[in-house]
Amino acid sequence: MSVQRSRSALSPNNSGNIEASNSTVNGSNIIGGAGGSSSSSGYIKDRYIDELPSQQLRLLCEHLDEMQVWMQLAEVMQLRPADVKFIQQQQELGKSPSWLLIRKWGIECKHTVTELFMLLWKREQHHAMRMLKDFVERKYQLLIPRSQPRLTMLMANSDIKQLNGPINSSSSGVSNSNNNSSYSSSEQTAPTSTQRIEQDVREFARYMIEISYDDLTEATENWSERLKLGKGGFGTVYKGTWKCTEVAVKQLQYNAVNGRDSSKVQLQQSLNELKHLSRYRHDNVLPLFGYSLNGEKPCLVYQLMKGGTLEQRLYAKKEKPLTWKERVEICLGASRLVNCIINFIINVSYFKFYSGINFLHSCDVKPLIHGDIKPANVLLDVCLTPRIGDFGLAREGPAAVSRSVTVSQVYGTRPYLPQEFLRGKKLSTKVDTYSYGVMLLETFTGMRAVDQHRRPLLLSEFVKCVRKDELVNLIDARQPIQNDERDMCKNLILLGTQCVAFEADDRPEMKYVYDTINFCKIYPD
For bias kind Low complexity, which ranges apply (predicted)? Predict the structure, then answer.
């Protein structure tokens, strides 16, 4: 089989994800194909990576993208710096870095599945190893751990830093530029003990219900594929019925990141989300019903959002497009929350909200930066009320909103992140403003944040090439519009361009964004 034919079986789509096509290898359809060929003795013939079923390769690349470990793999693959730089550039354009990596190392250099399997073993990518299990000999399959450690085992052996403290970076020369980040402030946080971690868990969850893992297993019909709602870098979300109530259950995964004990990193992420969702009560925060820490994997249980995500509603082909009024109300609700978490301080002990506007320049007030604002993280209920979820990457920012802190690594979704964060690693509230601006532009233009068929590829750059008096031509044409709505949409697109300004200081604060949307909307409350 030629390399070219194998490449055609997989290609990045407009959003940089991998799509599979119905290709044929040796006369058989390879979509959903079986494992490696074997004899009656159980011997599995090693094969080149380009001979893998395209569906299997697509799923593997998607998983590695979610885990954000391609640069660690590039190091052990001994990829040339020029190749690594090329993949980084393509990643910034929304392409799949894992697919580009495997194409370069595995397909062009003709490496085998077993070689890839062993590299994944070195990096403790156990789930990825399971995905290739049927394509390697049994002696290699035995390297896969039989089960995941329980949370109590993790905590007993954990040396996790405090939730907002630094995580030691990998000692390798290649660092993942899209991994979860930690603050590299001058104050280093000492390792915490098991008792401290347990104390943190109980403190964060003191106002929530602890749900047994067995109950959640029953609620999701033993984690049925039929009930799977989606999958992300830190877990899989299932629909379930618990206590006669429809819920969404996020089952958190253990994975390897930067060669460290991945379980500890994942525990930190789950506790981070538990911490923030237990502290904040707001109409536009995704409600967290409870948690489970007593089973094979930690789980978080949320209210089920039956309206889907803003991303699904913006780009749905079969459903009616959102009306202009619905879009305005969704963006208004999202901006209200982002402004709230930046400008409010929470007293956890008494669960009171204190207005933070008078404290913005006080050293005692630290804004919360979500870090991953995008349409996929804006969930909608049946009335289309927006709820922002996925606080796993949320971090406390500098005391003054006008300041920034330097982080050790970049995290989040690249098309929604500004250059001072991607390249300079400077984190401030203006990062959320930029992300929100991209989402605002998507909502009123109907264009995706990144599009391979558009120049420039990034929506945040594309709108800057359009004259102000021509912004009206960018309004989503799928939805009928009245004259007064046209003016409103044009003004909101203009607001979006202000939010994605290149310089952080040129972007408005979220309070201004909220007030402007409120001023622009033409519909009565």
Answer: 168-186
The β-bridge relationship of strands 245-252 and 28-29 is: unpaired
133 marked as binding residue: no
Residue 337 and residue 224 in one domain: no
Q: What is the DSSP string of 333-382?
A: HHHHHHHHHHHEEEETTTTEEEE-GGGTT-TT---EE-S--SGGGEEE-T
User: In degrees, to the nearest 5, what angle opens at C-alpha 276 toward C-alphas 275 and 282?
Assistant: 140
Same domain, 367 and 286: no
Burial category of 59 from C-beta neighbours within 10 Å (exposed 0-12, middle 13-18, buried 19 and up): middle
DSSP state of 317: S
Instruction: Tell me the pTM.
Output: 0.61
Residue 449 and residue 340 share a domain: yes
Phi-psi label, residue 438: left if phi above 0, alpha if psi -120 to 50, beta otherwise: alpha
Residue 525 lies in a domain: no
Any domain includes 180: yes
Domain boundary among 141, 174, 201: 141
For 190-233, what is each residue's pLDDT tens digit?
Answer: 334 444 545 566 566 666 788 999 999 999 999 999 999 887 66
Q: How many domains does the chain divide into? A: 3
Give me 413's structure tokens. 């979704």
**In sequence order, what are the beta bridge partners of 387?**
379
Where is the domain boundary, 279, 303, 327? 303
What is the CA 283 to chain-centroid distance, rounded? 22
Domain of 458, in residue numbers: 310-520
Q: How far is Cα 512 from Cα 525, in angstroms, rounded to an integer? A: 19
Catalytic residue positions, numbered:
372
In terms of domains, do 297 and 317 share one? no
Segment (H or E) for 303: strand 299-303
- The CATH number given to whatever domain includes residue 51 is 1.10.533.10
- The sign of the dihedral angle between the CA atoms of 344, 345, 348, 351 is negative
**Closest to 398 in 3D by CA, of 353, 430, 422:** 430
DSSP symbol at 209 = E
The one-letter code for the residue type at 245 is T
Least confident span in 338-342, 503-507, 519-523: 338-342
Question: At 142, which amino acid appears?
Answer: L
Assigned domain for 468 exists: yes
Kindly state whether residues 196 and 108 are assigned to the same domain.
Answer: no
User: 172-184, pLDDT tens digit by residue?
Assistant: 222 233 333 333 3
